[in-house]
Amino acid sequence: MDTAAAEWTSAGEPTGARRGAGRTVGAWAAGLLFAGVSVVVGCRAADSDGITPVPQLLAFLPWLLAPTGLGLLLALLARWRVGMVWGVLLLGCVAWFIEPYGRTSEPGGTPLAELRVMTSNVEFGRGTDALIPAVRRQKPDILFVEECEYGCSRALEDAFGGSRGVYPYREAVEGAGSDGSVIMSRFPLTGADGVRGTMGMPGAVADVDGHDVRLQLAHPMPPLPGQLGVWRRELGELRDYAAASASPTILAGDFNASQDHAAFRHILDTGLRDSARLAGDARTPSWPARTTPTLGAQIDHVLVSEDFSANKATFLRITGTDHRALVVDLTLHQHE
User: Fold this and answer.
1) What letter would DSSP give residue 241?
2) Mean pLDDT of 20-34
C-alpha cells in the first residue's frame, strides 16, 4: 500500500507541476496583453494620442476587443482572478469607446439645396483610371481627390473639366506623388486660402444655388513614427479652419485619423459633424481598402457644419488605391 501510494504521488507531481507552469505562463501572457491594451485605452480615456505606437494602434481601437478577449480567456484558464477582473474592465472600456463620437443633431431650418459630395484618395494617382468611371456613375456635385499627382490632375481635367465639362470649376494644388490634390465642382468656385500642409490641401468657396459654402480638402501627414508632431500640427490647422467661421462648411478628404484620435475629435469639437455617422455609417472602414470591411479604420471623412443633414453615405472600392471612396448625399438648410 505504501509503495503504491508513493508511486501514485511520484507520477502525479510532474502533472501538477506542468499544470501550475501552464497557468503561470497563461497568466503572464494575459497580463502582457492586458498591459498593452491598457496603455492604448488609457490614452484614449485621457484624450491623448500618446507616442508611437499608440497613435497607430488607436486607429484600430475596435479591434482591440480581440487581444482583450484572448487575454480574458487565458486568465480564466489560469484561474487568475485579478486578471479576470482586469479583462472584464478592459472589455467594457473598449466597448464604451467604440460608441460613435460627436454631435448628431439635425438642422431645423428650411431645406435650401441638395448636393452630393465625393472624396477619394487615389494613392499617388494609381486609382485615377478607376475613379473616372466611378465619378460618372455617382455624379457628385463636388469632388475632392487626394494624392492626385500631375497625371491624375490632367486626366480628371480631360474627362470632366473645361467650360463645357461636368465640372467646369476647380481649385488644385499641383504636385508629384502624394502632394497633389484637386477640388472639382459643378457649382461656381471662388479661390480661397487653403490650409497649409506638407501635402496639398486646397480650399474654395462654392456658390451652391446662391448660398456660399466653404470647401476645404483635408490631407494631413499620416502619424508615422518620427512625424507625429507634423501630424498633430496639421490636424490642428484643420481644427483652426473649422473653428474660424460660422458659414456653411464642408471639410472633406483623407484625414489620416479616426474618431479614436484626440486630434481628430478636437476638429469635431468645433461643431462639425461626421456625415457618415449622421447617415448611420460611423464605423465603416475606409482604409486599408484591401482588408476592408473585415479589418480597417475609417480615416476618410466628409465633415459638415450644423447647416447640413446627411441622407446617405456610400463607401466605394476604387481599384488601384488603398482607400475606399466616400460618397454622401447632403441637404443644406437655412441657418436658424
Assistant:
1) H
2) 89
